[in-house]
């Protein structure tokens, strides 16, 4: 199961995300759920860092787990893209509830 965590600031602004695990929907290389989640995670991270030039803290480990957090002073700049990511992941979770879980942390 892919475990997604969305990070919020004290005032509720989206400030990051974490993706961990494997969906288990299909074998490696054929897993459409994993592909969808991975693609949107990397697209979001690349947009924030490379296009928007936000100095985000990003870690990706050997297991493919990704965490991204933006400084609180940049939260307003990345709000829309992070909310779009949440919308996309929520829709995937509705379609594949056995493969994706979502939590939110402050």
Radius of gyration from CA coordinates: 13 Å
Q: CATH homologous superfamily - what is it? A: Cysteine protease Prp
Intertermini distance: 22 Å
Secondary-structure-based class equals: alpha+beta
CATH architecture: 2-Layer Sandwich
Q: What's the number of extended β-strand segments?
A: 5
Q: Tell me the domain tally.
A: 1
And the CATH topology?
Alpha-Beta Plaits
Number of helices: 2
Strand order within the widest sheet? 3-4-2-1-5
Helix coverage percent: 25-40%
SS strand fraction:
25-35%
* Secondary-structure element string: EEHEEHE
- What's the overall geometry? globular
Main sheet specs: 5 strands, mixed
Point out poorly predicted stretches: none
What value does the average pLDDT take? 96
CATH hierarchy, class: Alpha Beta
Structure notes:
The chain is an alpha+beta fold. The chain has a single domain (2-105), classed as Cysteine protease Prp (Alpha-Beta Plaits, 2-Layer Sandwich), CATH 3.30.70.1490. Helices cover 39% and strands 26% of the residues. It has two helices and five strands, in the order E-E-H-E-E-H-E. It has helices spanning 32-51, 75-95; strands at 2-8, 14-20, 57-60, 66-69, 100-105. It has a five-stranded mixed beta sheet, covered by helices on one side. Helix 1 runs antiparallel to helix 2. The longest helix is centred in the C-terminal third of the chain and has 21 residues, at 75-95. The radius of gyration is 13 Å and the shape is globular. The two termini are 22 Å apart. The mean pLDDT is 96.
């Amino acid at each position: 199961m892919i475990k997604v965590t969305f990070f919020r600031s004290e005032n509720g602004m989206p400030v990051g995300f974490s993706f961990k695990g494997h969906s288990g929907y299909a074998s490696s290389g054929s897993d459409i759920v994993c592909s969808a989640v991975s693609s949107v995670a990397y697209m979001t991270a690349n947009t924030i860092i490379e296009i928007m030039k936000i100095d985000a803290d990003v870690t990706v480990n050997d297991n493919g787990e990704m965490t991204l957090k933006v400084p609180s002073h940049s939260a307003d700049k990345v709000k829309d893209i992070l909310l779009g990511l949440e919308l996309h992941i929520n829709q995937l979770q509705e379609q594949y509830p056995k493969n994706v879980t979502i939590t939110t942390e402050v």
